[in-house]
Amino acid sequence: MTISRLSRIALGASAFAALAFAPVAGSAKPARDHQSWWKSAVIYEIYPRSFQDSNGDGIGDLNGVTQRLDYLQKLGVDAIWLTPFFPSPNADFGYDVADYTGVAPEYGTMQDWDRLTREARKRGIRVLVDFVLNHSSDQHPWFKESRSSRTNPKRDWYVWRDPAPDGGPPTNWQSIFGGSTWEYDKATHQYYYHIFLPQQPDVNWANPGLKRAMYDVMRFWLRHGASGFRLDATPYLFEDPNWPNDPEVKSGRPVWLKPYNSGLPAGNAILRDMRRIVDKAPGDAVLLGESSTATIEDLRKVYGAKSDEINLPMNFLYGNLTKLDAPTFKKQIDDAQMKLDGLPPVFFFSSHDHSRQWTSFGDGVHNDAIARVTSAMTLTLRGTALLYYGEEIGMADLPKEELQHFPLGPKRKVADNRDPERSPMQWTGDASGGFTTGAPWLPVASAARTVNVAAQIRDPASMYAWYARLLQLRRTNAALRDGAYLPLESGNPDVVAYARIDAEGRGVLVLLNMSAAPQSLSISGWRGRLPQDASVLLASPATDKIDLQAPALEPYGVQLVQFTSRR
Ligand code: NOJ
Ligand code: CA
User: Fold this and answer.
1) What protein residues have CB closer than 5 angstroms to ion ligand 2?
2) CATH of residue 381
3) How many independent structural domains does the chain possess?
């Protein structure tokens, strides 16, 4: 079925009526065939530096992650994704890799890694490795060799160009972190290319030797228990070989996702190779892609024309939203559910690069209630959901005042404007949040005194309990686990409504009030009569009352309602 056909079916209101309770466009197949765990998984992102310190040096480590596996199992996650723990000068906190097959001493050893994956497997948790494939550190031996002379065999493993006729950079392109993408090398009188920091030279994927070495890295981690990879910065693997100047460079427009620096077709061939590598590995390994796109049509392409590239491209069209606006979400959700040919969308809000959703969507008054709206949405949609450590207890960004006077100290080389979302996990209410017995590398938020795992884990009304219940429902409720997506109209511009329906016509209706006022609604899109046997599965604020003829929601209210269709 083509994308345009799907969108026509999906977006016509009369088509909704005709299709309700039958599998709907874009979701004709159940979300998961029980062979492919990743199609409806919950993947929990861990920033290892900030999760749990096991040896008192103030830096989280692999053994710390292992210590917390029981917690993650109880929460109910299917997999964890660890951001880089490889040897690195930390110019970009591990995203400048100096050894792709090593563990940085501050995070532990290979033995610690092997133990982590073994212990995770025992608990039914898979582990994904962050593969930084677009660039290495300038301290990687490959780059040191490459820059040593123009004739070094590894010269072509990176992207080197002669200066422009005036001696300046080969093009006027700007890097994502600011400044030119070109760095002059005095010794060899050429420039090397970097879409991120100068300390992160782009590798040259056109070079067969580099390609082989990178594929070997993947095989190494798969042999060492990884269940796949989170692929960093996938749009940027190739550049336009004509090296055109950018006429808009001075306009202040963003420099990411330009036609000359991203999305070149040669990159698709690399991703197909990578997919073959993970497909050959035992255990249904997967590629989760940091694959931002400007449109849903471009996102569809990232899965591969034959769905043979990235299994799970992260949906940044959803993940980059920071304003709770029902029509915007309705569109993004419908697009993701119905314009991706039934492939699993990947929903998330928070990450080590994004402000935490408790903060970004919060209005300063209703943040907890709003966090329940955003999490209920992410976790009840058909597809895969990413959680970011601490999200499940309603962790906020570290306030600027708490960061301001914090000395960088010997453990850190540079401050980063993403520090606020990377503060240590809040396990307990003591001064170090249960994160470390030493001095933490980043401050533990003062909010840890009240917002922490220990306080929430036994409280049935806590944010932790909310998330744990949502995860449990995803596993145990057939409609939420495998069901088709049914777009509904709420009849109210502040309310998002949809349903998930299993093969027997049992379903879950999801109602989300995105406003600070109570809202009443009138749902359309059902086929025939409304279901009569509705009961509340989960609600915020808690209630067991539901009247499907005239539903009502509290400010920032959420209702998950179980029903059986009447055919
Ligand atoms: C995306 C990563 O998520 C981000 O943290 C990093 O700075 C860039 N890629 C460069 O690797
Ligand atoms: Ca440590």
Assistant:
1) 53, 55, 57, 59, 61
2) 3.20.20.80
3) 3
